[in-house]
Specification:
401 residues; 71% helix; single chain; mainly alpha
Length: 401
């Protein structure tokens, strides 16, 4: 390692350490009612409240209201009167029945302990699948701004990260384990959507079979527990979620959190038709990038980074907490840059990407939606690294495989 590489890594470690210390204190104070050192949240872990309410509805024999937006929102007002500062108006559950099936054990706990158990379990899964590869890098990821928003929202991104990276890193070593992990990821379709394409392009037939089998088992199990009508209600809910009325309502309420091309276009005031065309173009680029990355190139951190980036381009519904999915890839590519040399402005892209989960919210409110631009730039770096690795490979990386 050259002296320049050591300097880059030390600066990055200091930067992530300072940010991580602040993030840890901010979350700790916010959850414990301590001094305010950052943005105030009037509702803590709001997304987890939706998850827990869905389990409560099932256990109380009110399964039919889960995919009824108005009825389910009112149900949450009734069961969590002390969690909201006033009456909430739009709290939908837009997940497949397989996710509700996975959430059922949380119904044994009250909402506070259930939230704690959920965050600990999902963070532990992510640590087991990805963190043990690079403890210092994982410490930076787990205390990053993206992780802050996962914790504050009570979201499932740690679990998504565990399934995504765990599955992709086991493709050749353990096809069965890889397929099971990638199949479990189907609980979040907007994150999973490109995984089958990647496996098909890579000719990972055994992994693809295990993935399909896992999806089938989860679906049949949820069908057995909840019944066919619940699945039909989910299909209707997804159709409703794509309607202009619901899409507009969601955009107005969460646009500051959105990372997508279509959201950026709408924030800039472009017409719905142009915004949709931009999103379709981004999705086409994402599909092509994943196909060629997994068809032509060997397994690597850069190939995983291409898939992770493409996920944000193909989906019209990803939020700032989902950016945690990019952070392990960013750490890996930064190390690669430190070892081989950085491209022009590459360090700046990592710096902005790291801060983007929080800074992007502020910029969205200021009508400066740069999050998809930063994601595209990161994807371009990943693609450049992938092409470079096909020509030359570090001895240490070759030895690791």
């Amino acid at each position: 390692m050259t002296s320049s590489s050591r300097i880059d890594l030390r600066i990055a470690a200091a930067f992530c350490g300072v940010i991580g210390l602040y993030d840890t204190l901010y979350v700790s104070f916010l959850l414990s009612g301590g001094p305010r050192i950052g943005p105030f949240m009037d509702v803590l872990f709001p997304d987890f409240l939706v998850f827990h309410a869905a389990v409560r509805a099932f256990l109380e024999g009110k399964l039919a209201l889960i995919y009824d937006i108005d009825a389910f929102t009112q149900f949450q007002n009734v069961i969590y009167p002390d969690r909201f500062p006033g009456t909430v108006l739009f709290r939908p559950f837009f997940y497949p029945p397989t996710w509700l099936l996975m959430l059922l054990p949380l119904g044994l706990l009250a909402v506070g302990p259930a939230y704690g158990a959920f965050m600990i379990a999902t963070a532990a899964a992510a640590t087991a699948m990805e963190g043990r590869r690079d403890w210092w890098g994982w410490l930076a990821v787990a205390s990053s701004p993206a992780a802050v928003w996962v914790v504050l929202a009570g979201q499932n991104t740690f679990l998504s990260l565990a399934c995504f990276y765990g599955g992709l890193r086991l493709l050749d070593r353990s096809p069965a384990a890889a397929g099971i992990l990638l199949g479990l990821l189907s609980y979040k379709p907007q994150i999973w959507v490109l995984v089958p394409l990647a496996l098909l392009a890579a000719r990972q037939w055994r992994v693809l079979a295990w993935t399909a089998g896992t999806v089938a088992v989860l679906s049949l199990a949820s069908l057995g527990v909840f019944g066919l009508d619940f699945w039909l209600a989910f299909v209707d809910a997804m159709r409703e979620a794509g309607s202009e009325n619901v899409a507009n309502t969601m955009f107005k309420r969460i646009y500051m959190h959105m990372t997508t091309l279509v959201a950026a276009a709408r924030i800039l005031g472009l017409s719905p038709g142009i915004a949709g065309a931009i999103q379709i173009a981004g999705a086409a680029l994402a599909v092509a990038a994943v196909w060629f990355a997994f068809r032509r190139y060997r397994p690597s951190d850069a190939r995983i980074a291409v898939l992770a980036t493409a996920t944000f381009l193909v989906s019209p519904y990803t939020l700032n907490y989902d950016l945690l999915l990019l952070m392990p890839a960013a750490v890996a590519l930064f190390r690669r840059g430190a070892a081989l040399g950085f491209y022009p402005l590459e360090r700046l892209v990592y710096f902005v990407l790291w801060l983007m989960p929080t800074a992007g919210m502020v910029l969205n409110r200021l009508d400066l939606p740069i999050m998809p631009v930063v994601i595209l730039l990161f994807g371009a770096i990943a693609w450049a690294r992938l092409r470079a690795e096909s020509k030359v490979e570090l001895p240490s990386a070759a030895a690791a495989r």
